[in-house]
Automatic annotation (TrEMBL):
Native source species: Hevea brasiliensis
Taxonomic lineage: Eukaryota, Viridiplantae, Streptophyta, Embryophyta, Tracheophyta
Origin superkingdom: Eukaryota
Protein name: F-box associated beta-propeller type 1 domain-containing protein
Domain F-box associated beta-propeller type: residue ranges: 2-148
Amino acid sequence: STCNGVFCLSDDVYGKYTGGAALWNPSVRKVIAIPGPNVTFTSHGPYIHSLGFGFDSTTDDFKLVSVVYLQDSDFNFYEIPPLVEIYSLRSRCWRMVHNDLRYAIPECSTSAFLNGACNWVAPKRQKGAVAGDVIVSFALGEEVFGEMEVPDLFG
């Protein structure tokens, strides 16, 4: 993904995030390697993930968001709430963020950065069945999740 002319590149090999990422600014020909997050296969076992990238104008900082769903005892993923970590370019480290996210963002979903938040589309479940989609947002300044209905364009 890209934000303010900076690209976030991650190595997502065969659907598994191995922890490698980099920020690349082609206009100044600079690349900054980002270390792997704290939640890994070695530390937590099988998981699925999604990434978000954007710019926090309140702190003048680029941030990478990792949303990880662990495998439960029935070998299913999407344990709610997920484990969420944020990498701050300013502090150069990952840290866990408490969250109450009730939606399962599909693995390797592309996020869109808009108005200070990373946004994903996630399925909305009611009584175990998919009942449409919601837009899940993560505000980089406040570091909280939000949600809104997907507009009904074809109803």
